[in-house]
Amino acid sequence: MALIDEATLTGPRSAVRPPDQRRRRRRAEAAAGYAFLSPWLLGFFALTAGPMLASLYLAFTNYNLFASPEWVGLDNFTMLFSDPRFIQSAKVTGIYVLVGTPVKLVAALAVAMLLNNRRRGQGLYRSVFYAPSLIGASVSIAIVWKAMFIDQGIVDKIGQSVGVNWGGWVGNPDMTMPMFVLLTVWQFGAPMVIFLAGLKQIPAELYEAASVDGAGPVRKFFKITLPMLSPVLFFNLLLETIHSFQIFASAFIISGGTGGPAGSTLFYTLYLYQRGFQDFRMGYASAMAWVLVVVVGIITLLFFRSSKFWVHYSGEGK
Amino acid sequence: MTTNPTLPATTGMAAVVSEEASRALRRRNRTTSRVTSVLFHVFVLAVSAVVLYPALWMLVSSLKPTSEIVGNTSLVPENASLANFATALDGIGGVSFWTFFWNSMLLGVLSVIGIALSASVSAYAFARIDFPGRSLWFALMIATLLLPFHVVIIPQYIVFNNVGLVNTYVPLLIGKFLAAEAFFVFLMVQFMRNLPRELDEAARIDGAGHVRIFRSIMLPLMKPALVTSSIFAFIWSWNDFFGPLLYLKDPALYSLPIALRLFVDQTSTSDYGAQMAMAVLALIPVMLFFLVFQRYLVEGVATQGLKG
Predict the structure, then answer these.
(1) Could you report the per-residue pLDDT of B228-254, keeping only the tens digit for each?
(2) Which positions in chain A touch B292 (Cβ < 8 Å)?
(3) Does domain B86-307 have CATH number 3.30.365.10?
């Protein structure tokens, strides 16, 4: 560090340092960089990269935690696609992602637009709507949800009072999916907060100008709001989609860990858990994990590839 | 819809919006604003009631005897009592509720410490030090944000099992001390990048090294990012179900979420009252955090979302 002092004290002539000094300084910077990065680097290799490679290897073996792994080639993968429970878990998760995510984001956008004004109480409403996002994935809420949707429970009672007899949703394979979709939609607050922040960035003049030109609310929404909001929409869509694939605790609690009734709550991660940590078929579970990684990877890639057609980064200088 | 009556006619668009037209627009807005304002609040309050209902129902049900919970939509307990809470506090299988509570608290506090230390140090490297390979590591860090953690959980479990660390807190905490949750590193990198560079440049000219700059300039300025990270770190640790389910076998070590699950399994006769009471107790710290820090939380989500 004395070098810098010298350089600054002796003025502009010595500001251009000799090459070996510069090299020494660059080496010191590199050392400092890796020293500061070392916690993350260690974590990355020991807890992410290493285990990823290990599970890639395990995916091609039979391993039960006790005997040593036995190489079986592609057997796990071929078995997966003829395993009716695996197909069921992929189906359940797929429907959940495809239905739950859009419904949740539509709700989030609708409420965000409703709140996007200068009326009083906005901060309070925003916090109230955000609260479920903090607790929605907890075991407590899963227990409450189950109690609400059982036979003769309050949802059943509310249905009866308006003349619908849907009975208990928990025990009915046709109704468990709507129950989980409602649970995720209930947590619309987090994407709503992000939408709201995005809406506030849209200049009010755009709307004023559009009004003067005679544009109605629908036109304004499609021509101003949606394009201006598309980067935020992209972010929410990507994150919520990836997040939806990983639902676990609520499915585990509501079905008692079984994925029932009739496999209707057998979400992907729940089946992975059953295979890996109840049957101790670690090779098979690793194969499942890698299928999930590939699927999530492809979806992420598609999102980014498609973004240039519908995500507009104009005006914000990004 | 979102035209703002209080905003003065803006300069940039003056050519597009004539003075006269925007004045007319504002006048019309003012006359209808009172009516729409009332409608707005009625509607938003109705939505709030729907959103809050499950939480309020849980709270009220925890005060009712089980026979009055199932199918009772009312939010007024007729025979309010704390009997359910007494049952819940008794715990499960000879382990008191408070054991689970303090276990969760210990895990939460250690998570906060681990993340605050490891993520801030690592973020400093990404945000402030120029070293070869930085952009590669940064890209890999971002990639882990999107990676389903299930792909690492099986080998991790095998290793922890082989070295005898299953049924300890080490597997649950080691990742926090090694900045394995990329979200926090990312959050702090974004925050640090917005701090003026002149600060550390001046310090460097005065002869300060990276350790000094980090400790005496960056850390104090990073307080908002540290607070936001700590709140999320605590709440996520508090609510975590998968990790404890995998690694904790001895009920005396259980954190609240898996204790809650055991409680639900054991009261198979469906003692909903006691279940609700325990569910409420388990959420109290989260709700307290939320009430105290709601601004930090909501602002944190809002700004992080936009910077992604």
Answers:
(1) 899 999 999 999 999 999 999 999 999
(2) none
(3) no
